[in-house]
From TrEMBL:
Its cofactor is Mn(2+). Keywords: Cytoplasm, Endoplasmic reticulum, Hydrolase, Manganese, Membrane, Metal-binding, Nucleus, Protein phosphatase, Repeat, TPR repeat, Transmembrane, Transmembrane helix. It is found in: Cytoplasm; Endoplasmic reticulum membrane; Nucleus membrane; Nucleus speckle. This is Serine/threonine-protein phosphatase 5. The keyword Nucleus applies. It catalyses: O-phospho-L-seryl-[protein] + H2O = L-seryl-[protein] + phosphate; O-phospho-L-threonyl-[protein] + H2O = L-threonyl-[protein] + phosphate. Belongs to the PPP phosphatase family. PP-5 (PP-T) subfamily. One of its GO terms (molecular function) is protein serine/threonine phosphatase activity. The active site is at 289 (proton donor/acceptor). It is a multi-pass membrane protein. Pfam families: Metallophos (PF00149), PPP5 (PF08321), TPR_1 (PF00515), TPR_11 (PF13414). PROSITE patterns: TPR, TPR_REGION.
Amino acid sequence: MDATANSDVQRAEEFKLKANDAFKANKFSQAIELYSQAIELNSSNAVYWANRAFAHTKLEEYGSAVQDATKAIEIDSRYSKGYYRRGAAYLAMGKFKEALKDFQQVKKICPNDPDATRKLKECEKAVQKIRFEEAISAGDDERRSVADSIDYHIIEVEPHYAGPRIDGEEITIEFVKAMLDEFKKQKCIHKRYAYQIVLKTLDLLRSMPSLVDVDVPNGGHFTVCGDVHGQYFDLLNIFDLNGLPSEENPYLFNGDFVDRGSFSVEVILTLFAFKCLYPKAMYLARGNHESKSMNKIYGFEGEVRSKLGEKFVELFAEVFCWLPLAHVINNKVFVVHGGLFSVDGVKLSDIRSIDRFCEPPEEGLMCELLWSDPQPQLGRGPSKRGVALSFGADVTKKFLQENNLVKDEGHEIEHDGKLITVFSAPNYCDQMGNKGAFIRFTAPEMKPDIVTFSAVPHPDVKPMAYANNFLRMFQ
């Protein structure tokens, strides 16, 4: 090895050590940059690729993690961590069968490793369970409604129940405020009232199109919130900062209400209760986490089962399928959880006509609405998450122009101020240290006013407390 090559190898190691420190400090983007510099200097070291894969996993960039782990395996086919990292990324994407193959390889390379054996067993159990579920649902072409089999009127409320009650059919603001206080004390409402809220929400959502038009009168304002991810106490903080939802204070919550945070039941019942109370002032859009596969992995399914019971698992899955996919505010602002499309020429009418009552598909318009992400470079590229795609400023500009949604000024965030990404879960998963934000628009200008806020304390229940055992192993 000549002196230059030797120097590159040494410098690469220095970058790797700095990257490891950044990773330990939860600075995952910085870690990725540093691992990338190590790879530029010495691309034949499998460890750098596998470490960068792990950092991508922490940022939920599972597609990039799979690519990096695959590269590590190509460099060294006996490097168990390459298979391990790729298997963990596949697990996080819900691709259990692919994950299983990788963990089988880990076991083959490390036959006496008890940790590898345990994880392989968990993965085998998960795949077995999914195959069983697929088998019993096979051939059931009709859309069976769980909701139609539930009559909350016949559910008895025991005399000793001391929580808030709904008298009759109408949900009142007094009930909702009492419910919020119960949730703060880590208590739940009676199942009868939970059913009433969810079933009434379902009726409202069924009548809505896949693309919803929102009208804000001149002088009125409208607040858009991003991912809340089961962080109930941060949701309450948004209401403290910006006011409770009401006819004069309307909101749109733009998907990913649940999963990861361990107060997802409280979040979803709160949002649904406000939807019942103010149907024209609480708008809800579907995110990629309003789906069975994500809920199975990231905690919502386990939390619902623990707090409300099995029947609610099926009921929420049905209601999520009726959530609208996108909103347009005052014919100016297009709001969607994910992003834009792999093809040009998509019109708002195409989104309006999507038959949304299904689990999110792996490709097509609905998938892209829920999963796509913006990228700094022009054009389209592969998704860091491994689903849908990334799209550039030119794609954004063309879509807005073709649909007459272009506005002259916007907050300078991405894509020449035409695109704003908002995330409303501060200190995400109790470890990312990020701030949350919401956007407040005022008609008729619809200029975005972005409000940022920090996380607030919450009871000592860890994120992912209800997540699948095998997923928690890889966190």
